[in-house]
Amino acid sequence: MKLADVAEAITSRLGGGVTGRAEFRGEMTLSLQPEALHQVCEFCRDELGFDLLLDISSIDHFEHEPRYEIVYELYSLTNGLHLRLKTAATEDHPEVRTVCDLWPTANWHEREAWDMMGLRFAGHPDLRRIIMWEGYPYHPLRKDFPLEGKFSDVPDVAFTEPAPLGGGPFVTAPVHGTTEVREPRARRAGDPSPDQAFIAES
Amino acid sequence: MSDRNPYAYDSKIEGNIIFTQLDTAINWMRSNSLWPMPMGLACCAIELMAAGAARFDIARFGAEVMRFSPRQSDVMIVAGTVTYKMALAVKRIYEQMADPKWVIAMGACASSGGMYRSYAVLQGIDHLIPVDVYVSGCPPRPEALLDGLMRLQKKIMGEHSFLQQKKELLASL
User: Fold this and answer.
1) CA distance A44 to A85
2) Fewer beta carbons within 10 Å, N or C terminal of chain B?
């Protein structure tokens, strides 16, 4: 079985839920309707042999709707195939159905997505924060959360204060060009990238 | 002085007697038997372990007895990044240590937050507990930690421990 066959099988069985298909450097990505996610995941696990959930990550497309994108990385140990599933969640209702019942490992991944990005997973058995502490009021990986953080205080548990950024945040330059071009690596957001400066000079 | 024992200070009374101040004697004992509480939180802890191992041998300075119980420790070596999640735990362990107690902030993160200007990291452990010695470096080499330890010993030797206790006692009456 190849990735193309997998994509074919999913679209022929559950085609209504698939909104997009992309192939890049041998990696297959399917975009799904949020309602179809659980069904597709179950199909992938039970009939296509994707017995391992590698990771769940999320993307914040701030100021675009749907704001959040949730990415599921599936792997088949029997066939050696890697499949990526993507689905979306809106800003007003950032919730999708859990896949904990399919892969137990999703429990912690979904808790992390809740903690860092504020996405909820309907049907999750234990949706607590996993990295920050209970009572912390923010979701730090959202684009509208400042890097330096905000004030917060949970008595006897933890407090936070904004960190001094000293003119930052500094943006690291891409590692093209000579050392002369790249340095200094500390640049402010919005500065022209050194690559552009280098191209303009030469 | 006899030929047999040239180092006796006052051989007329007896050999091996030294006259000194109580403060100096107490400080000398304290500074040469510092039991560290290894608060290893990040990569600095690896250098702390190196300082404790054979090559750098922190035992040369009387600080080899790493205690994992705060009740038995004299100096807390905060080695690494103090996140907000860990911060109150560090403070609690510090408060559990018996007096007299000292703190070494080892490395950039423990001293100032280091490169972590971020929502998750306390910008220096001195926001929560008093620090006696800051050791620079990211991470500092074991020699740097040993230098910090020697500076702490020097600092302890300058303390008026007995006078201080007396003052506190009088103030409490």
Assistant:
1) 10
2) C
- Mutation pick from B119, B121, B122, B127 vs chain A, by most beta carbons of A within 10 Å, is B119
Q: Distance between CA B81 and CA B44 in Å, rounded?
A: 9
Q: What kind and span of H or E run contains B91?
A: helix B84-96
Q: Are B35 and B64 in contact (CB under 8 A)?
A: no
How far apart are alpha carbons B37 and B73 in whole angstroms?
Answer: 5
d(CA B104, CA B152): 8
Q: Is B117–A157 a contact, with Cβ atoms under 8 angstroms apart?
A: no
Please report where in the chains the tokens 């560290």 appear, as a residue.
B36
Residues A198 and A189: their CA atoms lie apart, in Å, by 18
In whole angstroms, give the CA distance from residue B143 to residue B80: 17
Structure tokens at B68: 């994992």
- pLDDT tens profile B92-106: 999 999 988 999 999
Q: Hey, are the CB atoms on A158 and B88 less than 8 Å from each other?
A: yes
> In the block, which residue shows the tokens 């959930």?
A53
pLDDT, one tens digit per residue, over A77-128 is: 999 999 999 999 999 999 999 999 999 999 999 999 999 999 999 999 999 9
The dihedral over CA atoms of B5, B9, B10, B16, expressed in degrees to the nearest 10, equals -70
Q: What is the DSSP letter of A184?
A: S
The number of CA neighbours under 13 Å toward the Cβ of A80 is 1
Between CA A38 and CA A32 the distance in angstroms is: 10
**Residue B121 near chain A (CB below 8 Å):** yes
The tokens for A22 are 């992309």
- For residue B166, give Cα distances in angstroms to B18, B157, B171: 24, 18, 9
C-alpha–C-alpha distance, residues A197 and A176, integer Å = 12
Joined tokens for residue A29: 């990505």
- The helix or strand, by DSSP H or E, that contains position B172, with its residue range, turns out to be helix B161-172
Distance from CA of A158 to the nearest CA of B (A): 6
Residue pair B100/B157 in contact (Cβ under 8 Å)? The answer is: no
Question: Closest approach of chain A CAs to the CA of B71, in angstroms?
Answer: 21
Asked if the C-beta of A157 comes within 8 angstroms of chain B's C-beta atoms, the answer is yes
d(CA A63, CA A144): 10
